[in-house]
Design goal:
12 strands, Rossmann fold, 2 domains, two-stranded antiparallel sheet, 6-stranded mixed beta sheet, globular, alpha/beta
């Protein structure tokens, strides 16, 4: 009997039919969910940052803070993360008027005001400024060793503090999403993105690889030149629930989130398949 497999596709599903004469295996992420709820995971991450002080001990009253997060093409649950970040910034004495949430478009289209408000959530939309990045309005801060221009959206480059949000998943040439990708390509110029992405031609620029991946190393060098004070990265399950969170230093917290992702999604195989049918899980991709 043929095997039918439903795969997430946009807001719905597509069905793949595997003829009975073929040997097929189905790889799924581990189930079971997190031992703690989302609120506890996020609070614990922010109260116990990795490789950095608490955000409330980094920011200062009167400083301008840019909180960089992803646009509508990515599943980052900004609306669920931002309240905890805002609480930390307010505890540091930062005024709401000095906080800007910047949606990193990379080279994607601009978002509508409704999209920005929906992504940020009701509280953040009410309390702080929301804006998209603009690849045409960047400040050149230098170059990476591989020659990538470090062009950063002006509102981010000129902020006193930069906080980056993200979700970690496997990325086909950056190794994993998250971490410094909020800066490069998130809030970078088109020229910078083109140069960085040209590094995908390397066989070492592949999913699951961080060390020795020239594209990931270029991302993190560009982000370090810009300066990232704090990150919050989360891991999502197949239902887009937060099941892991790490905060703190751009590299240390990102690597911890990558390990959490591996524990949920990495699976051993006995041999390479002749044909692989993959779903990224559905919307927003």
């Amino acid at each position: 009997m043929d095997v039918k497999i439903e795969l997430g596709y946009g807001a719905g599903t597509q069905t793949a039919t595997i003829p009975d004469e073929y040997s097929a295996a189905l790889l799924l992420p581990r189930e079971g969910g997190a031992a703690e709820d989302e609120e506890t995971l996020l609070k614990n991450a922010l109260e116990n940052p990795l490789g950095a002080p608490r955000l409330r001990d980094i920011a200062r009253p009167g400083e301008k803070v840019a909180v960089v997060t992803s646009d509508i093409t990515r599943p980052v649950p900004s609306a669920r993360i931002l309240p905890f970040v805002l609480d930390e910034l307010y505890a540091a004495g930062v005024a709401p008027a000095d906080i800007t949430v910047v949606f990193g478009l990379g080279t994607h289209r601009a978002q509508t005001e409704e999209e920005r408000r929906r992504l940020a959530g009701e509280r953040a939309a009410r309390e702080v400024r929301l804006m998209d990045s603009d690849p045409e309005d960047c400040v050149r801060l230098g170059f990476t060793r591989r020659g990538t221009p470090v062009d950063v959206f002006r509102a981010v480059a000129e902020a006193d503090r930069r906080v980056c949000l993200g979700n970690v998943e496997f990325h086909w040439f950056a190794g994993y999403s998250g971490g410094g990708k909020a800066i490069m390509p998130g809030v970078s110029s088109r020229e910078a993105v083109r140069h960085n992405h040209s590094l995908m031609a390397s066989p070492d620029a592949c999913a699951g690889r961080l060390e020795g991946n020239p594209l990931r190393e270029d991302i993190e060098e560009a982000a370090a030149i810009c300066g990232v004070d704090f990150i919050v990265n989360v891991v999502l399950d197949a239902h887009k629930r937060i099941v892991g969170a790490a905060a703190g230093d751009m590299v240390a917290a990102h690597r911890a989130a990558c390990r959490a992702l591996d524990a949920l999604y990495a699976a051993p195989i006995d041999a390479l398949a002749d044909v692989v049918i993959v779903s990224q899980g559905g919307a927003p991709k």
